Amino acid sequence: MLPLHSPAEAAGAPSARPAARPTVRTAEAGDLPAVARILEPYATRTVATFDEEPPSLDAWSARFADLAARGLPFLVAELEGEVVGYAYASPWRPKSAYRYTVEDSVYLAPEAQRRGVGTRLLSALLDACSLAGVRQVVAVVADDPAAAGSLPLHQRLGFEVAGVLRDVGIKHGRSVSTMLLQRSLG
Ligand SMILES: CC(C)(COP(=O)(O)OP(=O)(O)OC[C@H]1O[C@@H](n2cnc3c(N)ncnc32)[C@H](O)[C@@H]1OP(=O)(O)O)[C@@H](O)C(=O)NCCC(=O)NCCS
Fold first, then answer.
1. pLDDT of residue 20
2. Model pTM score
């Protein structure tokens, strides 16, 4: 394991790089091993996700099937034929009155960061959410350097900070707060 200088460095967060031109498309079941590999270091080594164990392939398959059944989008980004990132929308909360509100999730492999891929993915996800009839999109962003790119990414695409939940996560022996961001698609 590499030394953990900071969570962002642990995940390989780089400086800005030349823009990339990813292919963004709907995810297929065959993409799920790559999707699982992308999240794995964030789950084990950072607080960017509050998953403490990387989801298994079976868990990804179940999530993929559930989102498909709900008509919610799950996208991947490819560079040179390799899946380097994913984004999906999942129900924000289970009670029925929340049915037009989703939470977005977007993760890139470290080598794909800061090249505009996240912007392309999330922008496409918002378009797909609109087509699916979604009215509000919520992002839950860890208040931590490991998620440093998430706040500017979401703000760039029109999300506004809706609040802060203090110390709602405990991971790697410390408390982590989250920022809630919201974008209306209406
Ligand atoms: C967050 C993430 C998806 C952003 O995607 P990306 O392709 O790196 O972002 P982009 O290159 O499209 O840049 C979008 C904006 O974020 C900024 N940004 C991206 N990474 C950054 C970082 N590490 N630190 C500071 N700013 C960052 C860019 O400068 C740009 O801002 P601008 O509009 O002011 O120019 C990606 O960095 C990632 O996977 N991070 C780790 C996992 C994570 O935090 N996921 C989100 C969980 S809520």
1. 86
2. 0.93
Q: Return the amino acid letter for 126.
A: L
Q: Whose C-alpha lies nearest to ligand 1, atom 23? A: 149
Q: Which residues contact 3 (CB under 8 A, 6 or more apart)?
A: none
Residue 162 CA to ligand 1 centre (angstroms) = 19
- pLDDT tens digits along 113-172: 999 999 999 999 999 999 999 999 999 999 999 999 999 999 999 999 999 999 999 999
Mutate to test the pocket of ligand 1, among 86, 92, 113 (most ligand atoms within 8 A of CB): 113
Query: What confidence category does residue 81 fall into, taking pLDDT thresholds of 50, 70 and 90?
Result: very high
CB atoms within 10 A of CB 51: 14
**Which domains are seen in the chain, by residue range?**
21-138 (3.40.630.30)
CA dist., res. 144 & res. 167, Å (int) = 12
DSSP string computed for 7-63:
HHHHTT----------EEEE--GGGHHHHHHHHHHHHHH-SSSS-SSPPPHHHHHHH
